[in-house]
Every structure is written in C-alpha cells, then in structure tokens.
From TrEMBL, chain A:
This protein's UniProt keywords: Membrane, Transmembrane, Transmembrane helix
Transmembrane helix recorded as keyword: yes
Full protein name: Intracellular sulfur oxidation DsrE/DsrF family protein
Source lineage: Bacteria, Pseudomonadati, Pseudomonadota, Candidatus Muproteobacteria
Transmembrane segments: 75-93
From TrEMBL, chain B:
Signal peptide: 1-20
Official protein name in the record: Uncharacterized protein
Keywords annotated in UniProt: Signal
Originating species: Candidatus Muproteobacteria bacterium RBG_16_65_34
Pfam families: DsrE
Amino acid sequence: MSHEKFSDEFLNAFVDGELAPEEKSRVLLDMSQDEALNRRVCELKTLHDLVRTGYQNPPQSGSTPRATGDTRYRANIAAAVTLAFGILLGWLLREPVGLRTAAGPAPSQMPAPDTRTAGAAARAAPGDAAPARVLIHINDNNAVHLAQALDEVEALLAYYRAHRQNAVVEVVVNGAGLDLVRADVSAFPDRVEALLKEHRNLTIAACQNTIERLAREAGIAAQLLPGVTVIDSGVAQIMRRQQQGWAYIQV
Amino acid sequence: MRKMLSFLLALGLGVGLAAAGQAAEGYGKQKVVYHLNVDDPAQLKATVQNVQNHINAVGQENLDLRVVMHGNGIALLQQANNDADMQSKVINLKKQGIHFNVCANTLKGKKLNYKNDLFDVSEQDIVPSGVAEIAALQAKGYSYVKP
C-alpha cells in the first residue's frame, strides 16, 4: 500500500486531530499496514509536539532583544528539555506498538487469582442496559461454513430477543463471502431473506468493492437478494464499526 | 531562586519522562478474548501455542485472557480429554490464569455432557452464548483475536 496518497497537509491535520472520523479511520487503517506511513506520521507528531512545547512560554512583548546571562541560561535549559522531550517522544512513537500502548484504553480489570470466580465475574450479564452492537464478518463461501455462520447469527439474535436485550447486528460480506447474498449463486437465499424479515435489528451489508471487482474481472453484474444493503468497503466498515465501539466477530 | 526553580522543574520533567519511558517498555496490561470455532487439529494446536506465546510476550501478571469456544471449537476440550499432550497444555495454561469458556448452546446442540465429554469444565466456565459472550467482552474493553 502506498502512503503517497496522503499529502503532508492531510497528515498534519490528522496529527492535529482535525480530521473527520471517516478520514481518521482511513489513516489509522493504512498506518496499521504501512510502516513507512507510520514513521512519517510519527515524525510529524514529534515536530508538532516540539512546536507546541516551544511555544508554551511565548516571548514577552517589549522584552530586550539581547539575552542576559540569566535568560540565556534559562533558554538553554528550555531548549535542552524540549530536545530531550522530542527525542523521547520520537522514541516512544517509533513503532506501532508504542502508539497502540499509548492510545489504548487503560485496562481496568485484571485476572483474580481464582480462575473460577473471575470467569463468572466477567460473564456477559444478560439484560445489560447498553445495547449490544455486533458486526459479524463473513468472507468465504464454503457452504458448510456459511450454514454455521447463519446458525450463529440466528442463535445470537434469538439470545438477545430471549433476554430482552437491545441489540443491533450487522453482517458484512466481502470477497468470496459475497456469494451468500448473490441471488444467482447463494446456497441459502430463503434463509437470508427470512432472517432479514424476522429481525428488524439485523442488516446484511455487501461490499461495493467486491461487487465492482466481480464486474471488472469476471464480467458478472451481481444481483443481491432483497433486503441486502451495500456499503462502500467491507474492510473500511469493519474499521469504522470497531472505532464506534462495536464488537467484531469473524465466523 | 529562579535558576533553582527552573532546575527543579527540569528535574521533575525528566523524572516524569523517564517513568513514561519505563511504562512504554513492555505492552502494559491487556484484556484479550480468543475466539475458537474450528476443530482442525493443527489449528487447535496452533491456538494453544498462540496463547502461550501471548503470555510470554505480555507477562502472566499483565494478562486477562479468555478462550471462548463454540461450535466445532469445543473440540479443543474434547481432545484434551483423550490426548495427554493437549491435556497437559491446557492444564499448564490454566495454571497461568487462562480461562476456557464453553458455549451452552453448543453443548445443547451437540448433546454433550460437559462433565464427561470435556476436560476439566465446571459450571462457572459455561457461558449462555459464545458469540454474545465475545461481543459483551469486547464491549468491556477486551481485544478480539481470531487465531
């Protein structure tokens, strides 16, 4: 993947936190796959922080242009500290691991010594007030596997219904997984339609990129089953949903 | 006075930065859920190895790791019932604080008795729905790994 597609101006906006969530997730996605881009962003971030640190104490208006011994001494310290800060920051951000550790949420709950009680404590509490939001990703077309995947989706929706828990479930199909929702080749057209009719909190979204690739490479104009929606990119959708706090499950 | 103040300030900053550097040295604390729903023996073997490598990298004291099994993935604990090598690996991982959770829907669907058919499973290890459990854990901040 090439990182030349992002201009410095765009990446600066990213570092300054001025991008829209979609653009941000695009950069984050690319950063996770492109080390050169990652390094470039780290360099910009270091520069950004250096500038910010340097301007925390702006020069007083009306101060004498010539530095006295005392101010020069202080300026030296400030410069040294700023430099050390910059070097350290650069070192901290030198690899994606550092970035992730720095940005990740603080873990709150650690394993208790007793395996059994800890296992029960973290159990999914039925009737949780917050709605469950789950993205299920399907990207292969093995019929046995697809049948199992549909079983899982059905069981999950039944579980939430039985426990009166608010939930939204989104199935994203891309790559070979698109076959599941293609009217001409789907192994389970009736099941897909029935599931969508039965559950208003279920969406099944097909990847536009895959549809376009089929048309381009195989000359196939994919017809989708009724009720199936289309999203721009399956992979981007997965990234977006996870950033919005959705759970991700590949079945 | 001013010199001393700026010196103290720089010193404090330096100590703070050193501490920050220390914290970034390892991976820090992690909460992770491993999702297992296949029964391919090679994949099962790879999964327990992945978990061990994860412990080694992060440190037992920093890790809250749960393996959630449903569908065919339950084969891991069936195999541990019959295969001494797999059994010792599971015992070893449990000693290091790893939880193995089993889906109740799967037990029902496959008509399995967890006491006889699976290795070392107690009632507390059973979750109502494997997939819902994985979703709930992620909502609580657990990272998702599909080995």
